[in-house]
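Amino Acid Chain and Its Fold in Token Form
===========================================
Purpose: to set a sequence beside its fold so the mapping can be learned.
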Amino acid sequence: MNPYTSRTMIKDPTAFVGRAAELHDVYTLLAALQSCSLVGPRRIGKSSLLYHLTHPAIYQPPLPNPEHYIFAFVDLQELTGLGPEDFFYTAVERLVRASGGRLKADPERDGTQSGFRRFLGRVSDEGWRLALCCDEFEMLSTNPRFTADFFAYLRGLCSNYNLALVTSSQASLFDLCHQGNLQTSQFWNIFVERTLGLMPEAEARALITEPFQRAGHPLPAADVEPVLDLAGQHPFFIQMACYHLFELGPAKPLERATLATRFFEEARRHYAYEWERLDSTGQAFLIALIRGEAPTLDPALFQHLKRNAMVSGKPEAVALISEGWRRFAEERASGAPITTQPAARTGSTPGERKSGVWTGRRLGTYEVLEPLGRGGMAEVYKGRHTRLDKMVAIKVLPLEVADDPNFRARFEREARAVAALKHPHIVQVFDFGDVDGTYYMVMDYVAGKDLAHRMRETGALPLAHVAPLAQHIASALDYAHAQGLVHRDVKPSNVMLEAGATPRAILMDFGIAKILASGQTGPTRSGMIGTLDYMAPEQINASAAIDGRADVYSLGVMVYQMLTGQLPFSGESPGAVLMAHLQQAAPDPRLLAPHLSEACALAIQRALAKDPDQRCPTAGELAAALE
């Protein structure tokens, strides 16, 4: 029997190949009952991966006391047109079934909104840890019967009981929760997102060879490369190419032309679907790429194409993922004009917006000159105050925030607080506003490079250079903390080094993380805010009691990195980094920088304490230990 017949979710554990890093990452997050979302294009294997999280027959989950975990799989397509009560009923029914009799519940009684809460309270008290794996999350987010109140309630259940959600969707939960009836929802805020893309080459080769081996027809080594060339490292297209190769007869010499013809006949409609989902800019770039005429690639467009498994490589060396995709693009390129300029700003959906769209335009009294950079939260442009003829930096916030009816009040409140900060090592914000739903903040333009760029150029820095930079940053933080403001995203890319013989460190982006956050207060968890490599444990746990000591922790990470050239907590995946911040003891920087004094090393380790009460109470205390 042909082992490559499936074109939908793979349920047979023996037929599931690869995705070891993603499985390990998600299990690591679930060890802390951290909800996570799998995001990726259609046919990339999200459903199969989600299903195998609940059936770990070929993988040993890295979970503490794995016998206390119960995984249940729910295909949300089953709930199309149904409502919240059907969700709760299905969740209880699947969890009870997955428990194999260990959970005692009645779906009729416990499968209601209030009943589900009581059920979770009971099983949490008994020590069970539940993971509900919800496939095709778009089915809920686009169903008008599932309102923002439902998702707020579900988020509260995850915060207060031993329940974690794992969702799969094509779009980010942030984007899905800022559309339609969920425009005010902050449901996405409790999730760590894991992108699912092309398979690593070793796993792609295993997907080609192992099913042939199990079927008793070992594949000649010479036949592997042609399949990789044709399908790339995309699991769905590998499955398709191998199906036709098996049908041709694996014992025979590979008939390349016949295989390519059969494969392309089936693959064409899938390529066409993905092509039609691209905007004209994306299509034009791919056409220019196969013609050898591609211009410099916009980083945002590159990330969009790579995220949707259309290209691979790096922006400066981009390539189509396979010969099959190239053949389809060549068909579409016949006689097509090339227009590679980004489209003008319109009411596009989240994720379609390209960087640099404000260049040459006006925001209030400011002329936007050129993009300076783009982070995860906003774009930064160099601009000019038209009346004062003064160079400024303009931070343009994401378009999606305009969909939040409470955002304007939060934005103005936080922006005023940030603008009130007057300190030589904090960039001065002196204006803010909005134009047609686009919010922006205006600040002093600082000529120079950020600290992240400096460390990429030099690696570890000598203590004589680190000490004054740490003092600058620490004095800025202590000043802001005294005003009741917490930065929440202290990291090297948010520290500008003013050009000159003696660089002056200037802290950027005060208030941006808070402005873009939900603003929710109270005992429930509202989600992580910050950058994972520099994030304090209480930020990872989304504690309501975030104070200046979280910034001290982040500064401790930065100081360690500046002195050693390495991060104190690292890992092969976001989940591994998260668990290192939560559980791994702070390393001694003298192992990598033996010239440091004991007092300096101990101050850094104290700044990296897991418990905020055990840290340096001020950033200045850490900086003083370096002098």
User: Anything to note?
Assistant: The longest strand covers residues 366-374.
